[in-house]
Amino acid sequence: MAPSSALALVTSTPKRAPPLLIPTAPVHRPTEMSTLPLLSPFQITRPQTSQLVQCFINEQFASDTVVAIQEKEGRIHGDLQKARSESGEDDTAASKDNSTIIKGSNKKSAKKSHKNTKATNSHYIKDLEGQLLTLAEALATARANLDHFSNFSRGVLQGEYNKIALTINDDSPRYIELEQTMNFLFDNDNRLTYFREMIPIVKKVGAKQSGTVIVSLPYLIKFQCKDAHSPVVTSLIEEMYQLYLTEELRFRLKDQISADGSKLRLLRQAEEALGQRTDASTELIRKHYRKKSIKLHPDRNGESFRPVFEEFTDARDVLSDVKLRQRYLREMLQVIGLAPIEKSQESWVAKHRPDKAMSDVKRRDDANKKDGPPQLEGGLFYQMLKGPMIQQHQDGKKSTVVSVSVHVPHPIYEFYSKVRSIRVVFSSTHGESQTIELKRGDIAKGIPVTEQGASLRSSLCVGERVLSQGIWDVAWFGQVGFCRN
After folding, report:
1. Which of 41, 68, 83, 190 has its CA 20 to 30 A from that of 97?
2. What is the distance, to the nearest Å, from the Cα of residue 301 to the centroid of all Cα atoms in its chain?
3. pTM of the model
4. Are the C-beta atoms of residues 263 and 196 closer than 8 Å to each other?
C-alpha cells in the first residue's frame, strides 16, 4: 500500500476546459430600432408590427451573434496557444533535467512530474481544440443566417422605398432625404455598422427634447415662437438631437475610424445629417423672421412696437448664428428647472454677449433714471465690475489668510478721482461674515508716486483677513461720488 500511496501524491487531476456555451447576442426592442434618425424618412408609426423593423432586428441579431462567436473563438485560440506554449516549455525543462547531473530518485521524480503535467495539458488542449471545432460550426451557421437576413432586409427595404417614393415629389426635401437614406442603408456593411454603433448611442442620449421646453426659453419667446409644434421649434429639436448623436459617435469612433472604412462612412453620414438639420433650422428662422417682422415693425404699428421689434431682431441675431444658437440651446436646456430662467438668461448673455449685457444695463438705468447722478464720460457708471481677486496662504495654524484685490474699472483716472470708499464682504455658508473697508484716504495712500507723478494701477489691494474653514462668498462694492456742474 505504501508505493500506491506515494504514487497518489504525484498524480495530478487532469486539467479540463470549462463547458462551452455558444454565445448569442441580445435582441433589440422594436422601439429602439425605430427611433434611429436614419429611419425617420420611412415614418414608422407602429414599430411592433413593422416588417422593416423586424427584418432589421433579425439581421442585427445575426450580425451581433457572429461578432460574439468570433470574440469567443479568439479567446479560446489565445488559451490554446498558451497551453501549447506551456507544454513546449515543460518538454524543454524535462530534456534539461535528463541531461543534468540529477540522479537516482530526483531524476525519476522529475520525469514523473513532467509526464503528469504533459498529460494534464494534453487533456486541456484536446478540450480547447474540440471547442474550436464546435465554434467553427456555430460560426458557419450564424454567417449563413446573417446572409439570409441581409438579403431579406434588402428586399423589404427596397419595397418600402418604392412604396413611399411613389407618393412624394421627386424634388421635395423628403424625397431627397429618402434617397440619401436608401443609398446608405442598401449597403450591408453600412447598414450593420450603423445599427451596431448607433443603438447604444441613442440609448445614452435619450429622448428628444420637448417642444414645450424649447418655447419656454427667453430667446424663443422674444422670437415669437409660441407654438411647440411649429416648424422652427421642430427643426431646432431635430438639430440638437442630431448634434448630440454626432458628438457621441465622434467620441465613440475616435480611435477606430482609420482601421474601418464602414465606420468612417458612418461618421461622415452623421456629420452630413447634422449639416442638413442645421441648414434647415437656419432657413426656417430666416423665413420666420421675414414673416413676423412685417407684423411687428414699428413703421406699421407705431413706436409702441419698437421695443418688441428690437427684442425680436436681437433674438434673430442669436438664433441665426449656428454656433451661438447651438451653444445657447445646449447650455440653457442643461440648467432649465435648476435655476430661475431669467437669471440663467442674464448669466448666459453676460458670458457670451458681454456688449449686449452692458447695453441692457445702460438701457435699464436710462429707463429708471430721473434725478439720479449724471452719466460719466467713458462709461464708468455703467460698467459691469469684475469679481475680486483672491490669494490665500496658511498662517501656520488651521486658519487661512486671504488677501483681496479688486480690478479698477475703466477709465482708471476717473475712478481714482471719484471713488469714495471700497468695501469687501465675506459671507460663509454657516452665517459668519467679515468686512474690509477702505476709505478715500487709505486708497490715496496706496497709490505709488514717482517723479513723473502718481502711478494709477489697474488693480487695488484692499487688505487681508483670517477666515475659518468652510465655504465663503466674496463680493466688493465701490462708492463713487459725483458733483453736479
Report:
1. 83
2. 45
3. 0.61
4. no
Show the cell assigned to 188.
450591408
Peptide bond before residue 373 is cis, with ω within 30 degrees of 0: no
- Spatial distance between the Cα atoms of 206 and 26, rounded to a whole number of angstroms: 20
Pairing of strands 419-428, 472-480: antiparallel
How far is 9 from 32, CA to CA, in rounded Å?
59
Instruction: Give which of 25, 24, 20 is closest to 133, Cα–Cα.
Output: 20
Confirm if 143 and 68 have CB atoms less than 8 A apart.
Answer: no
The answer to whether the CB of 474 falls within 8 A of the CB of 404 is yes
Dihedral angle computed from the Cα positions of residues 310, 312, 315 and 321, in that order, rounded to the nearest 10 degrees: -100
Q: Which residues pair with 404 in a beta bridge?
A: 390, 463
Q: What is the CA radius of gyration of the chain?
A: 37
Contacts of 130 (CB under 8 A, 6+ apart): none
- With H, G, I as helix, E, B as strand and everything else as coil, classify residue 148: helix
- 95: its cell numbers: 530534456
**Alpha-carbon gap, residue 161 to 177, rounded angstroms:** 11
Classify burial at 269, counting beta carbons within 10 Å of its beta carbon; exposed 0-12, middle 13-18, buried 19 or more.
buried
Q: Where are the beta strands (DSSP E) in 395-485?
A: 400-407, 419-428, 433-439, 449-450, 453-454, 459-467, 472-480
Give the amino acid at 133: L
Q: Which amino acid is at 469?
A: Q
Place of cell 486539467: 15
The three cell numbers of residue 343 are 437669471
Name the one residue in this structure whose C-alpha cell is 507723478: 453
Q: Residue 63: which of 121, 150, 184 has the closest Cα?
A: 150
pLDDT digits (tens, 9 = 90+) for 91-141: 444 444 444 444 444 555 555 555 555 556 778 888 888 888 999 999 999
- pLDDT tens-digit readout, 236-273: 999 999 999 999 998 888 877 666 678 888 888 899 99
Query: What kind and span of H or E run contains 390?
Result: strand 389-394
Give the tens place of pLDDT for each residue, 282-319: 999 999 999 998 888 888 878 888 888 999 999 999 99
The CA-based angle 132-56-269, given to 5 degrees, is 100
Give residue-wise pLDDT tens across range 43-62: 888 989 999 999 999 999 99
Assign 385 to helix, strand or coil: coil
- Which one, of 423, 425, 422, 476, lies nearest residue 444 by Cα? 422
Q: Which three cell numbers stand for residue 106?
A: 530526483
Q: Which amino acid would we find at residue 363?
A: R
Single out the residue of 411, 431, 422 nearest to residue 471, CA to CA: 431
Note whether 237 and 214 are within 8 A (CB). yes
Q: Cell numbers 415693425 label which residue? A: 297
